[in-house]
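Q: For a teaching handout, I want to show students what a protein-ligand complex looks like in token form. Below are the inputs, and the small molecule is pyridoxal-5'-phosphate. Please produce the holo structure.
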Amino acid sequence: MLLHPSFDVNAAGHLTVAGFDACELAEQFGTPAYFLDEDAVRAQCRLYREAFRESFGGSSLPAYAGKALCCKKIYSVIAEEGLAADCVSPGELHTAYKAGFPMEKVFFHGNNKTDEDLRYALDLGVGHIVVDGWDELCALEKIAAEKDARPRILLRITPGIDPHTHKKIVTGSVDSKFGVAVATGQAFGFVRDALGCSHLVLDGFHCHVGSQIFDTEPFEDACDIMLAFIAKVRADFGFEAKILNLGGGFGVRYVEDDPEVDIRGNIARLGAEIDRMCALYGVEKPAVVMEPGRSIVAAAGCTLYTCGTVKSIPGFRNYVSVDGGMPDNPRYALYQSRYTIVNASRASAPADFPCTVAGRCCESGDLLSEDAVLAEPKRGDIIAVLVTGAYNYSMASNYNRIPRPPLVLLSKRGAEIAVRRETYEDLTALDL
Ligand SMILES: *Cc1c(COP(=O)(O)O)cnc(C)c1O
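A: Here is the structure, written as tokens, with pyridoxal-5'-phosphate included.
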């Protein structure tokens, strides 16, 4: 096993992904291409569902955050595994709908939903709209009245927690474009006004503290703040929250020195904390929702590239250029995200060639890693970047007019294309 159960090395010395030989996959589907171990995704879904049943009980349910990886096939898998879903745009809603996802199990997020977005969500029968602020509350009340609808809502609350992750992915602190803060007292006014909306049915509250979080402390802190908030709201307004949605954010191991995350243990600790706080405040235990994205799909995915130019600059460093880069994986350029990169063609040879792995864009920031150590690659070798199941395909662009790679699902049934490779014709299809 290499980092996660989906990755290994076979007798030919090639990397395997979900048991498939990476070099054969590259041959069959071309490069660059994304591969996803479907059975590993299903296993993560089951792990979450079982942990929720054990530790949260009632009608508690994990909701897959589609922004991590969004396409019809994924929503079908998620629906089959019985999870709810979190969508953050009308495009994601549309994709879920086209996949036949049960829309009553969808939470619709976003800090700036347009009137059109809200109308579309109501037309599709979205289960809960997570209202982010006063403007949206008023807009939704008006639209619901026009449509004579009674949408169910959660209110997005910022508990004011800095989970000590990268600043660009911190969203739960008070100074945030998302939600309404407890710390400023504004959250109470938000609840009062929501309860005053005759067309909206308030079911509870949502918060999200951040992403790639390795310990449970930020989540436990969020539980404490949110349950104290729920207790005060009940005392002030007589409103008992039925749902507490704690958002996403469990971390994933990208490199050897990242810790392993014990999802079941973390959820058990959160369950115990929620029970303790509910008893302390004498509030009814709400149904708990969490919205894992990364921790469902990241470790099941990898991207295969073909090695092109290998260049050594004496006294400086080695560059290994691959046939993809920031258009298919912008995370290094955005956040200096660390990855494990393997020469899939020589996976049992000693990794002793330190290098910077670069993409093919006209942009010097187009890098995938600056501290990779590979078995020395030759032009034509297959290079694998592991743990790319989340925030790769979903963040891909056509920068430099590079067609987006296909997404291939791997399972015991075989290899199945979930999203086909873009063609040059696709690239000009919208040009008039
Ligand atoms: C990003 C996000 C998630 C998913 O976060 P992960 O780190 O991928 O688990 C869930 N809910 C909300 C509201 C988000 O913004």
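A: Two things your students might notice: The mean pLDDT is 96. The chain has two domains: 7-37+298-428, 109-292.
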